[in-house]
Design goal:
Layout: H1 2-18, H2 21-28, H3 34-57, H4 60-63, E1 75-86, E2 90-96, E3 106-110, E4 115-125, E5 132-145, E6 148-153, E7 162-165, E8 168-182, E9 196-210, E10 215-230, E11 235-254, E12 263-282
Antiparallel strand pairs: 1-4, 1-12, 2-3, 2-12, 3-6, 4-5, 5-8, 6-7, 8-9, 9-10, 10-11, 11-12
Length: 288
Amino acid sequence: MRRGLIILLIIVGLALAGVRQPALAQLVGKGTPPEIVLAYTALLSAGLGLAAYYIWKNSPAERARGYRENLGQGEWFVAAYTGFSYLPAQDWKFFSGFAPELQGRSAENVSYRQGVLGGIKFGRYFDTLPWLGLEMEMNFSKHAIPGQNVRITPSLPVGPNSFSFIPDRFFIWDTQVNLLFRHGFLKDKEVTFGRLQPYLGMGTGFEVLYGLRDSGKNLAVETQAGIRYMCTPKVAVFLEYKFSYQFAVEFSQFLVRGHGPAGTASFDVPHHRFAVGVSYHFKNLFGN
């Protein structure tokens, strides 16, 4: 079993290395910069590696070796959550393709509506360092962009300095890998690490924003803070605040009415998420 898994991982690694960059770009969207394609491939490979390691450690051959007497305070976990997300208003910069009078100007304070959030997690707290963990996460949210009157800044030399923004919406899909740090309170015989566990996390993610006329994708910086309560040794509930930031996302086919052809707008995406969820914690059969 072990030899077969190693051979499989080698084959997968060679396959990923042999895939040409245009083919990878098609998976995440046309026009994707090379560094984004490589980062997405690295995140995907990390997730596949974590899943493959878990499958191997819990294979029938490894199970036959039995349990260690002391597994330590680490554990695997899976979780699901829901909540809401909030995007602060941002300036959309007129990047390329627009009429000359718009070059170097912006649509000021484009606002979004609050969205619904849903996500899943899979991760591991280590036996040798039970306060340290690693997780892979995916979440999804939807945000409407209402029709609104938007100012153009700096002001145009002639004509109106505002326009009517065409309604749109964002579907935001996020894949991220986080390093986790936790501390335990309210220790007892059933949960020796502590039933009450505040935690912090940080990492990087790959986010895709799907609009009605185009999509944008970029790397994002991710942070989180939360608190978990172990209702039983295996089941917990948690509250979590998550923040991510994407720099200079680009959207094409953006039309400023009365000012010529559509062009490409660039904007940052700070993203606040508030979640409540349930997690299931279980021991790896062989400790580390």
